[in-house]
Amino acid sequence: MSRTNTILCALLLLGTLAFANPLQAMWSVAELREHDHKSAAMQGTPSQVLAGVTQPLGAAQCANGQAEVGGIAFDCSDVDLLAFVPVAALGQESYGSAERRIEGSDVWGWTSPSTGDEYVLMGKTNATAFFRIVTDDATGLPTLENLGELPNPATSFSVWKDIKVRGNHAYIVAEASAHGMQVFDLTTLDGLDEAPDRRHTAAAHYRDASNTSHNIVINPDTDWAYIVGGTSGNTVNDVLCGRGGLHFVDITDPAAPASAGCSALDLYVHDAQCVTYHGPDTRFTGRELCFNAAEQWVSVVDVTDKNAPVRLGVFPYTRSSYVHQGWLTEDHRFFLLGDETDEQRFGFNTRTMIFDFEDLTSPQLPVEYFGPTTAIDHNMYTRDGLLYQSNYAAGLRILDTEGLYDGGTLSEIAHFDVFPDHDNASFVGTWSNYPYFEDGVVAVNAYDGLFLLQVDATLLANEAFTPGE
């Protein structure tokens, strides 16, 4: 038997043994992934309340629990609406013989180092749209200026698109055939006038280890990107890399991304956060670690040596359904996790799993936090001691994490519901948010369009804190 065949057989055997592990969730990988292969129509059922909105909406202050504009009332608390760009204003997309409704997905942001201008990068099924945050002359409030879009490669079309930024470049992937990873030079946006029909071009199109990908992860402190949930189109490579494990990409030169191998320690990684570790477990200070949401468990992998990644541990939990996405507190002690289908499967309110990683190889059993609605959780991020959750039908929820250090709990302090119809456990409403602009401005992307929100400054001043101090 050749060395290659020996490796393949060994990996397949390891995979078989892994799925027999009684600590793992009861569902098979095929069953676990089923939710991610629904039709776009099922995933992004439009809001009936927002269905008639075809032009952008302006600002609306949150008062008495509602922000009202254009005859629509959004449920809210301490979060104002600055602007809304509906998908209906972004056109339709030809897909085969049918016209399909464009839908929003991931969102990220960038602040120009030369001009100080802030930009929103909106993922759509057919492109990535770029918006500059400008001041509205009439209201004096921030609003969105459409600068055009970067189309998907060829005719690829997928609601599963994700974006991250390193330096002055955006890195964009999607679960669409031949999409690969697009690299876009964000400095080309500076000085442009508004032009929604403008079509931008990519600075690079990387496909060495990425034909289709579910997500892109970037360590903010290094020039390493990690493509997850992807396939390269090469069967041998896909098996060796776990058909969706971590793919390592050197982005030192954004115009020429270079493959640096992969890890099959987790056969499929749905999402991850990769950091240069500075948390309480000083054994790993300065190491590059990835905290993986790997469908059936959370895993922590040391990827400092790309040729020999090491898994520090696999951490399942009770009532697991689909381990989707999570984010660390800024002191790297707690990992806050969302399970995407547990609300549907078990019938409880929005659940956030709280992993205390004071010891990275032997954490405490996770604590459960249940939110006030039955909505499904999706993407969440931390900033200044606060957790910004995009919870599908319930919209943006902002939670205080200070209680984690005194009793191990979270508490909701503000919200803005971008899906007025209901808060049920269904795949509608918001996909993700970007809370890293200055002055409490948060971009929230939803299937129905892009929201620009403003969190109350007094609330932020009173509630924000530095974890670990």
TrEMBL record:
The UniProt keyword set, sorted, is: Signal
Signal peptide feature range: 1-20
Gene Ontology cellular-component terms for this entry are: extracellular region
- Superkingdom of the organism of origin: Bacteria
| NCBIfam families noted in UniProt | choice_anch_B
Q: What is this protein called?
A: Choice-of-anchor B family protein
Gene source species:
Euzebya pacifica
